[in-house]
């Protein structure tokens, strides 16, 4: 649909940016923090996944919040490290960790920046992992208790909560992300049992939030892609629907409707992977209702009908955005209409609009984008970072938000990945996303100085104009 005139961004639109605790904070064992599964992956063989110092956001958050205020952010999406609050996941509360996030939240509020808090972004406490992690129902209780602590401590200050970041990526690519620890080594039925337990934990957190904090809003934050059929051949459309169910709708339907998507359930049963569901589980899932849908968007994916042989198993894309075919189901296909970034991720701004339209159509919940961005090997030259490629990427995606809003979709915020450079899940600090450059390399921490990139000044203009500068 073409619009003669585009709708304006809402007055109270959340102009944000994102980070996660383990990728930005560093201070991995400071002030009583316990180890998380991510910390167990320090110094993986590739040698690039060192989160010990990261951007040192833990110690420099005041300086960073000042920069966020200068940027004009009206929201900052960050995660709380479970292991700072409860170092072993289910034992003693750590007052120093609790105090830290009070300081962060207070600093944000003092500068008029709304905190959008992710409760769990890949960093399961290692002590819980050692006890079986999400394979055990006791982890559900531990998460509920952690959620209660967060709501009691920060509930008077935080109005937007995100439960679990990218549960679908932890299930589908947990090993690749390297963030699900020992229990992340599981496969098949046990993996989907973990998935079920995470949904129960999320449902309990949502119910508790509504019970304790009537004014707050809470929602899930999966990674969502629109799935395209390779051609208009009906068999390709069926394959696209199958993969959409397994990758997206399984997670969305459980979070929003509290029920297993039928196609996804048939898939799990056919594999022998259906989880054990105890009495009361489905009621709990159905009763917990999110107030909004947050999602991370980087790309779309294209699949074709299975050929029924090994040629189905082709890998397209990369990292979390990878698509692997599955014999008898679908095969990954290159989308000839789309460019790819340096890491093989297809770039699809129009697919972003499609994704928003589809989510709105299916669930009719307000949307907030909690990640979207371009990873690149930025270079600091004479004190400047000319990241025009990032500006282009973000501009094209923001234009699609405005189109989606004009289409009637309710979108209330945009938090691109990332506010400030941090450690990527796969390519260390060299792959950068931020509006603010952090001057360090993999091996040399230098002064960790903060440098405003060209995209910083561009986004500052966009925010100051309420989005009007996009069309000028
Ligand atoms: C998302 C994660 O999957 O993608 C982030 O929520 C991650 O934690 C982001 O950093 C980008 O991926 P990468 O591999 O480029 O860091």
User: Spatial order of the strands in the main sheet?
Assistant: 1-13-12-7
Bound molecules: 6-O-phosphono-beta-D-glucopyranose
Q: Strand share of the residues? A: 5-15%
Arithmetic mean pLDDT: 94
Secondary structure tally, helices: 14
* SSE ordering: EHHEHHEHHEHHEEHHHEEEEEHEHEEEH
Integer tally of domains: 1
Instruction: Please name the CATH topology.
Output: TIM Barrel
Layout of strands and helices, then pairs:
Layout: E1 14-15, H1 21-24, H2 57-71, E2 75-79, H3 82-85, H4 95-110, E3 114-120, H5 126-130, H6 138-154, E4 160-165, H7 167-177, H8 188-212, E5 217-221, E6 227-229, H9 234-256, H10 262-271, H11 281-287, E7 293-296, E8 301-305, E9 315-316, E10 323-324, E11 330-332, H12 349-363, E12 367-371, H13 388-406, E13 411-414, E14 436-439, E15 449-452, H14 454-464
Parallel strand pairs: 1-13, 2-3, 3-4, 4-5, 6-8, 7-12, 12-13
Antiparallel strand pairs: 8-11, 9-10, 14-15
Helix pairs in contact: 2-4, 6-8, 8-11, 9-10, 12-13
Bound molecules: 6-O-phosphono-beta-D-glucopyranose.
């Amino acid at each position: 649909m073409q619009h003669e005139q585009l709708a304006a961004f809402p007055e109270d639109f959340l102009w944000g940016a994102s980070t996660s605790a383990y990728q930005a904070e560093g201070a991995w064992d400071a002030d009583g923090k316990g180890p998380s599964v991510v910390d167990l992956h320090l110094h993986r063989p590739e040698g690039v996944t060192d989160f010990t110092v990261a951007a040192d956001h833990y110690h420099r958050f005041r300086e960073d919040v000042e920069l966020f205020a200068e940027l004009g952010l009206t929201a900052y999406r960050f995660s709380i490290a479970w292991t700072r609050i409860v170092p072993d996941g289910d034992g003693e509360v750590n007052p120093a960790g609790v105090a830290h996030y009070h300081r962060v939240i207070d600093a944000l509020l003092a500068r008029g920046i709304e905190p959008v808090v992710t409760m769990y972004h890949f960093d399961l406490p290692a002590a819980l992992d050692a006890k079986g992690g999400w394979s055990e129902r006791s982890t559900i209780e531990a998460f509920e208790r952690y959620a209660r602590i967060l709501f009691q401590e920060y509930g008077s200050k935080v109005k937007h909560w995100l439960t679990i970041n990218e549960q679908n990526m932890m299930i589908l690519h947990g090993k690749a992300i390297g963030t699900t620890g020992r229990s992340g080594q599981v496969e098949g039925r046990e993996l989907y049992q973990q998935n079920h337990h995470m949904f129960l934990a999320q449902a309990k957190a949502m119910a508790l939030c509504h019970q304790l904090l009537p004014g707050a809003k809470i929602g899930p934050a999966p990674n969502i892609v629109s799935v395209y059929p390779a051609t208009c051949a009906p068999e390709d459309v069926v394959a696209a629907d199958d993969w959409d169910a397994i990758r997206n709708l399984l997670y969305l339907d459980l979070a929003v409707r509290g029920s297993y998507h039928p196609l996804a359930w048939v898939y799990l049963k056919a594999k022998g992977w259906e989880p054990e569901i105890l009495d009361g589980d489905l009621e709990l899932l159905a009763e917990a209702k999110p107030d909004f849908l947050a999602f991370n968007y980087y790309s779309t994916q294209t699949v074709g009908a299975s050929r029924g042989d090994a040629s189905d198993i082709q890998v397209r894309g990369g990292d979390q955005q990878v698509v692997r075919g599955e014999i008898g189901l679908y095969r990954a296909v290159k989308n000839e209409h789309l460019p790819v970034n340096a890491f093989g991720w297809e770039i699809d701004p129009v697919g972003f609009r499609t994704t928003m339209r589809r989510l709105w159509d299916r669930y009719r919940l307000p949307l907030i984008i909690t990640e979207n961005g371009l990873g690149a090997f930025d270079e600091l030259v004479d004190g400047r970072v000319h990241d025009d490629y990032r500006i282009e990427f973000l501009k094209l995606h923001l234009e699609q938000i405005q189109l989606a809003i004009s289409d009637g979709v309710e979108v209330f915020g945009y938090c691109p990945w990332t506010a400030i450079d941090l450690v990527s899940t796969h390519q260390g600090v060299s792959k950068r996303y931020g509006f603010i450059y952090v001057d360090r390399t993999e091996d040399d921490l230098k002064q960790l100085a903060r440098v405003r990139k060209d995209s910083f000044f561009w986004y500052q203009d966009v925010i100051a104009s309420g989005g009007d500068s996009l069309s000028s």
